[in-house]
Amino acid sequence: MGNPHGFLKIKRSKTDYRPACERVKDFAPVAAPRAEGVTREQTSRCMDCGTPFCHWGCPLGNFIPEWNDLTANLHWERALDLLQATNNLPEVTGRVCPALCEFACVLGINDDPVTIRENELAIVEYGFAHGLIKPQPPAVRTGKKVAVVGSGPAGLACAAQLNRAGHLVTVYEKADKIGGLMRYGIPEFKLEKSVLDRRQALWTAEGVVFKCGVNIGVDRTVAELQREHDAVVLAGGSRVPRDLKVPGRELAGIHFALEYLTQPNPLDARGKKVVVIGGGDTGADCVGTAHRQGAACVVQIELLPEPPRERPAGQPWPKYPFIFKTSTSHEEGGERRWSITTKEFKGQKEKVNSLVCARVDSSLKEVPGTDLTIEADLVLLALGFLHPEPINGLMVELDQRGNFKTDQNYMTSVKGIFAAGDMRRGQSLIVWALDEGRRAAAAVNRYLAVT
């Protein structure tokens, strides 16, 4: 390891964020770049455990102790090779992943865990800055053609892996640019879209073909894709939002979070009283965006109780704990309320102006006599997603949740058509989507070898 005593002598460094009063004035990244010297120190905190549970915590199985050690000893290129061996988008996960690995870090048992996510980002950005990341097209082409529908993390990882195997891959995306929710669901201040454009240019140079503005099932049929390709992978994500069907839902001024976060759009919070319903990351992104648009005030409400500040007894290390988190958006202002249910939307002239709410107990049952009113000019529903959108003309078997059902080889009930990511497993984290895409690519590769 880089320093046998590093974890004893060096403390975990906090992420260096731009001052809140400064960053709310723009959509530039909230985090400041970390100096190479700090990265070397922080990677040296890794203990090179006999049993590195960070591997277990990360769905991608990243070689975390290995590239920490290499970086601590200034072997950046070798560290980069190991990082990219398991992760197709480390520049994205290094920015927005919730870092399951850090909660499984052995050092975290009695100290602050290693800054694994920031180390990952430092390695890949070093690679780009020093020209170490270059197009590497496959030496041999198989002649097999694969269509990947959807360009979120699952679709992109799948496409990259299949192209690396020598197949001819075309990615179809109904939006005008690739990225899925990475582009149209995560604000610029958390993930600048030039990061996606940079990686797309690299994959294009390696031979992946991207066709944006093509809605499969509308502009092109699934049958056409089947005729033109040897395999089809559906990776369109889980895009049907969960609604809140209470009286007054039809009033103007109530929108799904994704409508709001997809910029540019006509929704502007300037001077408005904003209420965000939903306490997850998407809700926090809405809070941060509202601050930057100049909202008069922002309130975020959540049905569940406020999480504990420490690990609950039922979520011991190395499990990922459900604990209280404060995002950069929350640090910028606003109010958070827990154990709140929304009973009704009130309005005037067919436009929302308030919410009738009530407190709930630990079993989520309404507590009598606790009604309260929250004023609102703009209400954003950040309640997650239910299942994938249907594809016209595609008759495949679905599971009980409405996801595309597959066998152990990621194939749907239609031969030659595969599914991966949120479309297959339901809404989840970006690292799970990347893992899904890579596993689906391996399954497709096996299928093409015998067909």
Task: Summarize this structure briefly.
It contains 18 helices and 15 strands. By secondary structure, the chain is of the alpha/beta class.
CATH architecture of the largest domain: 3-Layer(bba) Sandwich
Number of domains: 3
Shape designation:
globular
Integer average pLDDT: 96
The N- to C-terminal Cα distance equals: 46 Å
Outline the biggest β-sheet: 5 strands, parallel
Total number of helices:
18
The fraction of residues assigned to DSSP E strands is 15-25%
Q: What helical percentage do the residues reach?
A: 25-40%
Structural class: alpha/beta
Q: What integer value in Å does the Rg equal?
A: 23 Å
- Name the CATH superfamily assignment of the largest domain: FAD/NAD(P)-binding domain
- Give the beta-strand count: 15
Q: What top-tier CATH class of the largest domain fits best?
A: Alpha Beta
Secondary-structure map with pairings?
Layout (H helix, E strand, L loop, with lengths): L5 H4 L10 H4 L12 H8 L9 H5 L6 H9 L3 H11 L3 H7 L3 H4 L12 H14 L15 E5 L3 H12 L3 E6 L7 H4 L9 H13 L2 E4 L9 H7 L2 E4 L5 E2 L12 E3 H5 L11 E5 L3 H13 L3 E5 L26 H4 L3 E3 L2 E9 L2 E9 L12 E4 L2 E4 L3 E3 L29 E3 L2 H4 L4 H20 L2
Parallel strand pairs: 1-2, 1-4, 2-3, 4-15, 6-13, 7-8, 7-13, 8-9
Antiparallel strand pairs: 5-14, 10-11, 11-12
